[in-house]
Amino acid sequence: MSEIDRRTLLTSLAAAGVGAVALAGPTSAAKADALKKEAEIACLYHCDFGDPARFGQLLNNISNHYSVYGANPFDIQLVMVVHSVGVKFFFATLEGTPWAEEASKVAPLFERVAALAKNGLKVYLCEITFERLKLDRDKLRKAEFVSFVPSGVATVAVLQSKGFAYLKVG
Q: Which has the closest alpha carbon to 5: 157, 162, 151?
């Protein structure tokens, strides 16, 4: 990417206010500059898919990733950026969503995410997905490790620019 393109991209992201808003916990919005690389090894896992088996494999990979570092949050920082149909894994109920019939396959996976969050995993959900699909945020599970970001894909770019490695299971 040329210097002008990079500058234009970063200026656009800053103007869009790419940051995070917590579902539970802090009430103020964190801007893009608040998303920091806090360990030598930092990785973002990108989830824009809705297949429960694939999501389960993503969770296996995150678990394996933590196991190599003894789940020490000072040695490794992992985040998951979620948009599109991937947000369904974070609902307390899927009633009234396009995925209502999948509740039995989806519900148990959140417990695995919550267990990984005890090692420091942070999850960023895309606001654009909720707006475009007209999804009710009140139906989400409340968890301090889950936050909203204005755009999932923009957050992926911001984190990569800050030194996060990119992984996508598929």
A: 157
